[in-house]
Design brief:
About 45% of the residues lie in helices and about 20% in strands. By secondary structure, it is α+β, with helices and mostly antiparallel strands. It has a seven-stranded antiparallel β-sheet, sandwiched between helices. The chain has one domain.
């Protein structure tokens, strides 16, 4: 009888040890992932000097209309524009007392370290499904930049960790213009398309 009890206790001990070992292996497996290993690497990049360092507005109303897929008659140049930046007044996406939506874009100083920090933070939020206010980030169509999407403030930003500059697009919050949610979402999508267009146009 004692032999039987002793054998049973030994068998239980062996099973318990096996389960503990399996749990440790599973925990260790979950702690590392390819995404975490890749997050510290800087993407190889094309040459975007003409966009991120020396940008001068290189688009007219006809080209803007073509990229945004809207009639050319809905695009005009506002009275005041900032040197080096592009600014166009766009009809069909809300208006205020001064007229249609002002869509502006241009480069701005922004350190490589800050770009890396913004990219990694946004990617972590996306992985955890913690993006609030519709904020998002996606890899550009050129595959070597990130596009940050901030619809609650009407902004799209291009980040490239190889440059001490970022590239901003602004189309303003909904409240500044009489703009529906659908119009705001559509303008955001068109601004992302514009960002990808400029990256392809300037990549060397």
């Amino acid at each position: 009888m004692q032999k039987t009890i002793g054998s049973a206790l030994m068998l239980l001990a062996v099973i318990s040890c096996g389960e503990t070992a399996e749990k440790k292996v599973d925990q260790n497996t979950n702690q590392t992932s390819p995404k975490n290993e890749e997050s510290g690497k800087v993407l190889p990049s094309g040459d975007y000097s003409s966009l991120l360092l020396n940008y001068e507005c290189d688009m007219d109303a006809a080209e803007v209309a073509r990229v945004l897929n809207i009639p050319e008659t809905d695009v005009s140049i506002p009275e005041f524009t900032q040197a080096g930046n592009c600014s166009f007044e766009i009809k069909g996406f809300g208006e205020n007392a001064l007229g249609g939506t002002i869509l502006s874009w241009g480069a701005t100083p922004f350190s490589k370290a800050d770009s890396k920090k913004e990219i990694q933070s946004a990617l972590k939020d996306k992985e955890k499904n913690e993006n609030i206010f519709g904020m998002d980030i996606e890899l550009s169509e050129t595959g070597d930049c990130y596009i940050r999407i901030l619809p609650h403030v009407g902004r799209v930003i291009i980040y490239n960790e190889n440059y001490d500059h970022a590239f901003f697009f602004t189309y303003s919050q909904r409240g500044i213009y009489k703009r529906t949610e659908e119009e705001h979402a559509a303008l955001g999508a068109k601004t992302i398309a514009l960002a990808n267009y400029l990256l392809k146009k300037h990549k060397r």
